[in-house]
């Protein structure tokens, strides 16, 4: 086992390919990152997901060596790289604006990093051909960037980053300059590229759909911190906090604030509710702290107002989405969304909401998920 040289607070970092530890960065005294720890396995595709300004690009630039940290260490393939200049880290970078050289052909653009490394011409040309083949642009090698679409330019930028055979590929919002149709196809291509090359990829995005569909694991960030680093399924089904639950999913989870009332009945705003015994068990922490249920459409079904244990509600709007409809209901002044298939009849007026699957419960004060009962 490799010795990392110093005590890294008892965390087992020896197994991770990229290991970021205690990384902190402030701009003019304002913290942008607050002691971030993050491990990425070899061959993994990790998304850094969070709202604008939460510190994603700062973290990526620190790994790339474009910024100096105030504190923290970075280990890549068992080597401390924090002291290395960017060009010695063997890291490929692709930004939102593709930054191709406009006066160079596609092939020259892709060869640029190889020429910088004084690679012999024959080997460089093989690498350029391989990289262009990987992004399916062999046939456009002689074109100028201005003769390419936005999506093609982005693929050239990718080929340029891959051609150096980086130990790590960093992508900062690589799809956000593309239109919706192109974004979807480049998303798939990037995923395929990852599968073909086995590259370790860290991608910054503020788009939860992008993160959910592309990444093996997602690090959800807020305000300079990583809140949760997990698989998309874990992030979706076991969100660590209400922030994560509300940031991920289409539509995002609704937080239903529930107050205890007497005789086993609960208050949701001014609505009185008698939940099932199973759900009462889930709501047990309510005796100690103020709670909210994180309810996604998959937790809910529409029933009649007088169905046993149904939460009394009123339909407000129905969104037609082709294969399905999203029914927005109000319960005790709070909004919930229920999914119906297109052929299910929609009732109107007073309805009941059934909670058909055990939902996560959050402490309203801390925002953290409480251990599920049962
Ligand atoms: N060069 C800079 N100088 C001063 N503040 C910066 C600089 N770069 C980023 N920031 C600030 O640091 C915070 C994190 O920025 P950034 O890492 O770019 O976030 P993200 O990529 O998640 O949108 C933001 O508040 C941003 O305004
Ligand atoms: Mg950014």
UniProtKB/TrEMBL annotation:
Annotated membrane topology: Peripheral membrane protein
Domain of life assignment: Bacteria
GO molecular function: ABC-type transporter activity; ATP binding; ATP hydrolysis activity
Keywords for the protein's UniProt record, in alphabetical order: ATP-binding, Nucleotide-binding, Transport
Cited Pfam families: ABC_tran (PF00005), TOBE_2 (PF08402)
PANTHER family: MALTODEXTRIN IMPORT ATP-BINDING PROTEIN MSMX, OSMOPROTECTIVE COMPOUNDS UPTAKE ATP-BINDING PROTEIN GGTA
InterPro entries from the UniProt entry: AAA+_ATPase, ABC_transporter-like_ATP-bd, ABC_transporter-like_CS, ABC_transpr_MalK/UgpC-like, Mo/tungstate-bd_C_term_dom, NA-bd_OB-fold, P-loop_NTPase, Transp-assoc_OB_typ2
Identification of the protein by name: Spermidine/putrescine ABC transporter ATPase
Record-level GO cellular component terms: ATP-binding cassette (ABC) transporter complex, substrate-binding subunit-containing
Family per record: Belongs to the ABC transporter superfamily.
Location of this chain's protein in the cell: Cell inner membrane
Domain ABC transporter: 18-248
């Amino acid at each position: 086992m490799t010795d990392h040289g110093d005590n890294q607070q008892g965390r087992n970092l020896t197994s991770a390919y990229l290991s970021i530890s205690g990384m902190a960065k402030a701009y003019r005294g304002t913290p942008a990152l607050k002691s971030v720890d993050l491990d990425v396995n070899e061959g993994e595709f990790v998304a850094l997901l969070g709202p604008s300004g939460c510190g994603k690009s700062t973290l990526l630039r620190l790994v790339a060596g474009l910024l100096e940290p105030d504190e923290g260490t970075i280990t890549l393939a068992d080597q401390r790289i924090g002291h290395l200049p960017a060009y010695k880290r063997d890291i490929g970078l692709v930004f939102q604006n593709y930054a191709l050289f406009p006066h160079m052909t596609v092939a020259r653009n892709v060869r640029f990093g190889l020429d910088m490394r004084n690679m012999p011409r024959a080997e460089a040309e093989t690498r350029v051909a391989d990289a262009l083949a990987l992004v399916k642009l062999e046939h456009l090698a002689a074109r100028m960037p201005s003769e390419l679409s936005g999506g093609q330019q982005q693929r050239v930028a990718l080929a340029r980053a891959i051609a150096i055979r980086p130990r790590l590929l960093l992508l900062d919002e690589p799809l956000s300059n593309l239109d919706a149709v192109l974004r979807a196809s480049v998303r798939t291509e990037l995923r395929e590229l990852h599968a073909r090359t086995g590259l370790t990829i860290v991608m910054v995005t503020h788009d939860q759909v992008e993160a959910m569909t592309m990444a093996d694991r997602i690090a959800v960030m807020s305000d300079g911190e990583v809140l949760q680093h997990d698989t998309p399924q874990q992030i979706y089904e076991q969100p660590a906090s209400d922030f994560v639950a509300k940031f991920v999913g289409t539509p995002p989870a609704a937080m239903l604030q529930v107050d205890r009332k007497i005789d086993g009945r609960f208050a949701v705003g001014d609505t009185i509710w008698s939940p099932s015994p199973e759900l009462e068990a889930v709501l047990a922490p309510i005796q100690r702290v103020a709670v909210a249920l994180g309810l996604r459409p998959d937790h809910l079904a529409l029933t009649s107002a007088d169905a046993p244990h149904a939460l009394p509600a009123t339909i407000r709007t129905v969104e037609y989405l082709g294969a399905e409809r999203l029914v927005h209901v109000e319960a005790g002044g709070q909004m919930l969304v229920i999914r119906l298939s297109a052929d299910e009849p929609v009732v109107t007026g007073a309805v009941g909401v059934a909670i058909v699957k055990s939902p996560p419960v959050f402490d309203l004060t801390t925002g953290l998920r409480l251990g599920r009962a049962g």
